[in-house]
Amino acid sequence: MEVAVAQMPRFSRVEEGVAWLLGRVPRVDLLVLPEYWLGARALEEGEFGRVVSGLVEVAGVVGGVVVGGGLAVRRGGAVVNVCPVVGRDGLLTWGEKIFPSAATGERGWVSPGRRLALFRAGGFVVGCLVCVDLLYPELVRRLASAGAEVLVNPASISADRRGLWRAVGLVRAFENSVYVAAALGTGYRYADGRPAAGGSYVASPNGGLVDFGEEAGVYTARISRSELDYARSRRRYLEDVARGAPEVDLNTHGL
User: Fold this and answer.
1) Structural domain boundaries of the chain?
2) I need a surface site. Which of 39, 135, 162, 244 has the fewest CB within 10 A?
3) Which Pfam families match (predicted)?
4) Would you put residue 147 in left (φ > 0), alpha (ψ -120 to 50) or beta?
5) Topology of 2-242 in CATH?
6) Whole-model pTM?
């Protein structure tokens, strides 16, 4: 499968971001956008509808599935960070950010999500975890146990956390025998002044990693069925976990 990550700057208007993508995207099976590519703000339903319509146009050029990043959307009085999954015929499904970030203050205006999504692209089963949800191994394992073979991670990460994000992606990929494709934003600053400087990557289930640097652009990598099969035949992590958790002795005597 050919996967592409869009390492994007932030845009103030949907049309600007869509135009940027249309001028760069190749034909691939799966395209992943970063979190908050329209800024860290809440979108009303109408604007979110325009996002989906624009991504339908992008999907037509790509020829595959587009993961529209993580976007805060106001729904029913609450704001939830939504990861739309879009094909040429419209919205296919969506996931939600389960744990908004406490460190950036996001938790003060974005409500916890409740929905993890699985979908198919290029013959693979794909799951989406938005930004810091990748730091929760329980969420990754839940998707992997449900059949995910590729995890996409739309994220917004400050430059000082790039090394950490690569390390997390490598570990999650290896311990769950999945690919992790992280799309990170670039060329803007957090409210506290820290820069975001890319660092998008694709991590393989056997310890390999392709890092796409700092520059804005759309970058591609090939995901291999044979590498996934090799990982799962050599390391039986998911089979072992499926057997059930061991008992824990809760007797704290002597502790």
Assistant:
1) 2-242
2) 244
3) CN_hydrolase (PF00795)
4) left
5) Nitrilase/N-carbamoyl-D-aminoacid amidohydrolase (3.60.110)
6) 0.94
